Amino acid sequence: MTKVALFIRDFELGTRIADSLTARGDECVFPDTESEDSQDAKVVIVDLDEVDQKPMDLVRKLVSESSEMSVVGCAGRVSKGLMDEAKEAGCRWVFPKSSLVRNLPAVVESGG
Hints:
Number of helices: 4
Mean pLDDT: 90
Structural class: alpha/beta
Strand content: 15-25%
CATH class: Alpha Beta
CATH topology: Rossmann fold
Number of domains: 1
Order of helices and strands: EHEEHEHEH
Radius of gyration: 12 Å
Distance between the termini: 8 Å
Helix content: 40-55%
């Protein structure tokens, strides 16, 4: 069982991801940005569209706290510029939200 932390406010997307992870037998938590809940997560998924959360700062913080953790970014539309910025911040992968759920098995297996 892999622990996955989701920094996603979009209820529909968060529910789809949580349902998919639970069906696989993985643990899923929705910490807030100041929470310690994500510290023992093997995979963290960050919504890069949530500008209120300052997603790139959050990615940098998470990566600096643990080199064992795989950080995955997702956005409604992934441009080359966003992908480059996210990878520079520390994201291992960046997916469009539309394809994230079907890529979860590969993400969790390689990150966990």
